[in-house]
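user: Please supply your own:

assistant:
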Amino acid sequence: MKKFIILIYGILAYIIFLIAFLYAIGFVNNLWVPKSIDSGIEIDTIYALLINIALLSVFALQHSIMARPAFKNWWFKIIGKAAERSTYILLSSLALILIYWQWQPMTTIVWSVDNVILATIVQGVYFMSWLIVLLSTFMISHFELFGLTQIVDNLKNKVTKEPSFRVNYFYGLVRHPIMLGFIIAFWATPTMTIGHLLFAAVTTSYILVAVKFLEEKDLKKALGKTYEEYQKKVPMIIPFTKISNNNTIEPKGLNSGL
């Protein structure tokens, strides 16, 4: 019965993640959703700035703390290994939903692309970036990344195997293609407002700092020289900034969390 409850819990966590992910596509670029990054009634600029930074900080802290190996080892003892990833995904999704709900618009325009063709190209880049994010999850292990493999294995009384160590597609271009996709998505907009600029700048800064000083550190500690060799051959975020002639390795758990 406990294993069945964990299965239902994991499935619900994944559904909530899908909702949050799809909503993000509309939220960031003011498309389709009822509450977007530039919609709503504007309040005092300083107050809006403080609220928005606080919202982004909640997400960053949750995302980073819960992704650390030391926290995971402690958390396993409380919630169990099978539900750990689902819980991480659920809380990350709820932190995103909190941002969608409480984000304060700051709609002064910083730049605007008036040319229809250029604006269409920018929108195309925007959607392409989200596709990069999604495809990158499948190039490692989408269902394990979002906790579904673990809960199904738990139901079958199986121990989930550690992910293999190999390079797949985008991971031969950059070590963190999921994060590259997010960065492009946050900046690719025909109309950039102060609120959107704040969102893009803070999230980009967080991604770069967290990847370099947290995620990479954990991977290097776990994988040693193999990851060091991968670092030498494949750039972290920006493609084609290193010469690589060997695409035969990929760190396990890459981009599993910041």
About this structure: The first strand starts at residue 109 and ends at 112. The CA atoms of residues 122 and 189 lie 6 Å apart.
